[in-house]
Amino acid sequence: WTAAVELAERAWGVSLFTTHVAACDGRLELPRQRPLDGVFGKAVVFAPADGTAPDTDAWLLDADIGDVPRTGSALLRGEPICTVFAHGSDAAQCHAALLERAARIVRAAMPRADQAG
Questions:
Q1: What residues does 42 pair with on adjacent strands?
Q2: What's the whole-model pTM score?
Q3: What string of DSSP letters covers 64-110?
Q4: Considering just the CA atoms, what is the radius of gyration of the chain in Å?
Q5: Each residue's pLDDT tens digit, 76-110
Q6: In this predicted structure, what is the pLDDT of residue 13?
């Protein structure tokens, strides 16, 4: 399952897993609705310094944050913290939203590293 499939699911507003299973059985079942307008994006947020994951319970409830670390787990410099998703009317707006979400994650996870940078 690639990142492209995750973004296609967001754009169409449906799970494509059932479509995938049907295709493996020789049936092609396309989504019945048209895709949503705009641009959908995904980015991996990397730790700028060593740290510890904060309370991530709220992250688990946010559909625009994935691959959430367990509260209290080690976050190592250069390693992924989590994944963020965004939607915008165009590529620039989507990119800006991804950057803003990534910055918010870094501030929450590593407030001292963010202030030092």
A1: 85
A2: 0.82
A3: TEESPPPTT-EE-TTSEEEEEEEEESSHHHHHHHHHHHHHHHHHHH-
A4: 17
A5: 999 999 999 999 999 999 999 999 999 999 999 98
A6: 83
